[in-house]
Amino acid sequence: MNWEQIEGKWEQAKGKVKEKWGKLTDDDITQINGKRDQLAGRIRERYGYTKERAEEEMKAWENDVRW
What's the confidence (pLDDT) of residue 43? Predict the structure, then answer.
């Protein structure tokens, strides 16, 4: 699934994001509002990941997410 599809279905994606990255708060997810760069930044902040690691995780998640 590409990010445009995820962004378009953000209300449904919120739960999947929370399952994958449990350290993200509900406020984080609300503020992200489907924006990929915002999600990457919050993942880096909450998990202490490098930009590259956050991107790798997000790409893997995008490829694996199923509705």
Answer: 98
* Count of Cβ atoms closer than 10 Å to residue 50 Cβ: 10
Half-sphere exposure of 35 (CA within 13 A, CB side): 9
Residue 42 is part of which domain span?
3-62
Residue carrying the six token digits 């790798």: 56
In a domain, 44, yes or no: yes
pTM: 0.90
What CATH number is attached to the domain comprising 27? 1.10.1470.10
Query: What is the distance between the alpha carbons of residues 8 and 46, in angstroms, rounded to a whole number?
Result: 24
Q: Per-10-residue mean pLDDT for the chain, 67 residues long?
A: 90 94 97 96 98 96 86
Q: What are the CA-CA distances from residue 25 to residues 2, 18, 38, 56 (Å)?
A: 24, 8, 13, 21
